[in-house]
Design a protein that fits this description.
The protein has twelve helices and no strands. It folds into two domains: 115 residues, Four Helix Bundle (Hemerythrin (Met), subunit A) (Up-down Bundle), CATH 1.20.120.350; 161 residues, Helix Hairpins. The model has no long low-confidence stretch (mean pLDDT 79). It is mostly helical.
């Protein structure tokens, strides 16, 4: 029984079927926002929502049964806990009696698409991993904006009160300028006030816009690599637990081979990094 459930839960068609049900659920929820459709087919839409809930319950049951004698191992993954809570919330006392709560619970089930799509799940994990780095980057950006805001207030405050009349106006102006919107017009307007407008805006764009943006990209890329590794480790844990729940030795062998391939790839990446470092070193003279 557990082996059959494990094969079903790990199959591509199973995830595809669940994805289609989630999309259908989203369509039905969208149709319920139209008064005319809700008035004419409200009962049918509610029945479809109940059918979708039943499908999700069956899906969770199959995935939990895939763990065999250790069903609690299903909750070792945060994504599995999220799926369980979102589906089980529909059975909480008082939810069905409250139409607002019921619709929120149904809406939350749409978020399960994150678990179904690996790339989307990877992006969400990367965003979470990048938050500490983004916090430091935010502090740096705020400091730069404040410094340039004060300089802008001293330089342009009297002639351009709408943009630099207060530190708040200056910060808002510079924040919008981070997108480089209307930069030539802003520089031309500033040149009519002060000869320092060009170095002021050019230095701001180079430091605040380009430098901060590049640091942000670096933080996100690093978080993507960490998230990709975490996602692989999570998937490997699921494979190992599913293989342990069956008597098939081929499943255990497959998991071990995946571990070895992953280690070999890591070793190759480390060697390539070391080789690039050696190539960047200046040649030494024989003497």
């Amino acid at each position: 029984m557990s082996a059959a459930c494990a094969r079903i839960a790990s199959s591509a068609w199973f995830d595809a079927a669940v994805f289609l049900v989630i999309v259908a659920n989203a369509v039905v929820l969208g149709l319920q926002t139209y008064d005319g459709i809700e008035r004419d087919a409200g009962g049918l839409l509610d029945a479809l929502n109940d059918v979708f809930l039943g499908v999700f319950v069956v899906e969770l049951s199959i995935r939990i049964a895939a763990y065999g004698r250790r069903p609690l191992s299903f909750f070792a993954s945060g994504w599995n806990v999220f799926d369980f809570v979102v589906v089980a919330a529909a059975f909480a006392p008082g939810v069905r009696e409250n139409s607002t709560l019921l619709r929120l619970v149904r809406l939350a089930r749409i978020l399960r698409v994150v678990r179904i799509l690996p790339d989307l799940r990877l992006l969400v994990t990367a965003v979470g991993r990048s938050l500490p780095g983004l916090a430091s980057l935010t502090v740096l950006a705020v400091v730069l904006l404040y410094i340039y805001g004060m300089v802008g207030w001293l330089t342009f405050g009297d002639e351009l009160p709408e943009d630099y009349g207060t530190i708040g106006d200056a910060l808002l102006t510079l924040f919008v300028l981070l997108s480089l919107e209307n930069l030539p017009d802003v520089i031309e307007q500033g040149m009519e006030v002060s000869e320092w407008a060009v170095p002021y805006y050019v230095s701001f764009v180079l430091i605040a816009a380009f430098l901060v943006l590049n640091i942000l990209i670096g933080v996100v890329l690093n978080s993507m690599e960490e998230a990709r590794e975490l996602e692989w480790q999570r998937a490997q844990v699921d494979r190992r637990q599913a293989a342990t729940a069956t008597d098939e030795t081929a499943d255990d062998r497959r998991v071990d081979l995946l571990d070895r391939v992953h280690d070999l790839r890591g070793a190759v990446d480390a060697l390539e990094h070391e080789l690039r470092a050696l190539e960047r070193e200046p040649p030494r003279s024989p003497g």
